[in-house]
Write a structure and sequence with these properties.
Elements lengths: L11 H6 L3 H6 L2 H18 L6 E5 L7 E4 L2 E5 H6 L1 E5 L7 E5 L3 H20 L14 H6 L1 H25 L6 H10 L2 H12 L4 H13 L9 H25 L6 E3 L6 E3 L1 H4 L11 H15 L4 E4 L13 E2 L4 H9 L11
Parallel strand pairs: 1-3
Antiparallel strand pairs: 1-9, 2-3, 2-8, 4-5, 6-7
Helix pairs in contact: 3-5, 5-7, 10-11, 11-13
């Protein structure tokens, strides 16, 4: 389904010029959203896939957007005001705003980036195993699906800037800022960091081997040290996510907590006070093994997010809002359920 935008008759350069610094600043919120939808419509059709619905929801921290099951959600504060909003974890009433560098062009980059994830998904080029940025940012950045999405986002945005500058005859004042932002998040930087951190000159292939082994659930013999480190990191992260989910589902009763010194999970005081629960810390892992196995196997990879500061957790996002007419509201709300697994940029 291709949603109407009001920009169908715009040429490509006219559409991209809406994202120029001069025009974007004066563009109303609903027209910004529809301009993003028109870019997504054309990008998907060019790649012979169905366009994602583009809508918005407020997100915590430096996340630009996320693609979930054929819907692209843009961070409301980023789309509306060009800022990220975060809350102090210890004093939630303390709210912080961070201005997004070159927010206009970063928004266009986000649409192409998330649209690429939509294309990957529809073309069945996704893996269930995904390295999230909070696991290891450099590995996250060099994994195949993100490498491609970053490349496409920057490529199309840089082409749009050059095209608009030729069309208007003016140099966009945010061009240099955008160039600096993509350089700071470059693939080359992360690849060099990962090679050094894992002492593995072939780290990109090693990472891909880990992803494939997890996806197809097979164990390799004689694996390298870097393979084992990545594999163990991934398993530990998934297990911690399971424990967090279990604690939330248990009426917010934190039965198991991670010891900061040993890294081991121990029974909490709440758990010790419950006579119906076994409190031997060594039994914690066994207590969850069967449930964790099914939880881990059911983790889907439907969520792909663009994180310009490389440290976002979109699971803290709030209720979804849609500015489209009521004809599309059911489509938006029906896609708002996300898995705990996120694809970040």
């Amino acid at each position: 389904m291709i949603l109407p935008t009001g920009f169908e008759n715009y040429s490509r350069v006219e559409l991209h010029s809406l994202f120029s610094s001069r025009n974007w600043e004066n563009l109303p919120f609903h027209q910004r959203l529809r301009a993003c939808q028109e870019v997504e419509n054309r990008y998907a059709i060019e790649n012979e896939t169905s366009p994602c619905l583009v809508t918005y929801k407020q997100m915590e921290g430096p996340t630009c957007g996320v693609q979930i099951n054929g819907t692209i959600y843009l961070n409301t504060s980023f789309l509306k005001e060009g800022v990220f909003i975060s809350h102090d974890p210890f004093v939630p009433t303390n709210v912080y705003e961070t201005r997004v560098p070159a927010a206009n062009w970063t928004m266009l980059d986000t649409i192409y980036h998330e649209g690429t994830h939509g294309i990957q998904e529809q073309q069945d080029r996704m893996f269930a195993t995904y390295i999230e940025s909070e696991m290891d940012y450099d590995l996250y950045r060099i994994q195949g699906v993100e490498k491609e999405a970053y490349e496409k986002g920057a490529k199309h945005t840089l082409a749009a800037i050059d095209e608009v500058e030729r069309y208007t005859g003016n140099i966009d004042p945010q061009k240099e800022t955008y160039l600096e932002s993509i350089e700071a998040e470059s693939y080359e930087n992360s690849l060099n960091n990962a090679i050094r951190n894992y002492n593995d000159p072939d780290i990109e292939n090693t990472l891909q081997e880990v992803i494939i082994s997890k996806d197809f659930d097979y164990n390799r013999d004689n694996t390298s040290e870097s393979f084992q480190r990545i594999s163990e990191m991934y398993d530990d992260y998934q297990y911690r996510k399971y424990l967090e989910s279990y604690n939330i589902q248990s009426n917010s009763k934190a039965f198991y907590a991670q010891d900061q010194e040993t890294g081991k999970y121990k029974a909490t005081e709440e758990m010790k006070d419950d006579p119906g629960i076994q409190t031997d810390p060594s039994s914690a892992e066994n207590h969850h093994n069967s449930e964790y196995s099914s939880y881990n196997a059911s983790e889907s990879t439907s969520e792909y997010s663009y994180n310009s500061d490389c440290s976002s957790d979109v699971r803290q996002s709030s209720e979804t809002s849609s500015s489209y007419d009521s004809d599309y509201s059911s489509s938006s709300s029906g896609s708002s359920q996300s898995s705990e697994s996120s694809y970040e940029m």
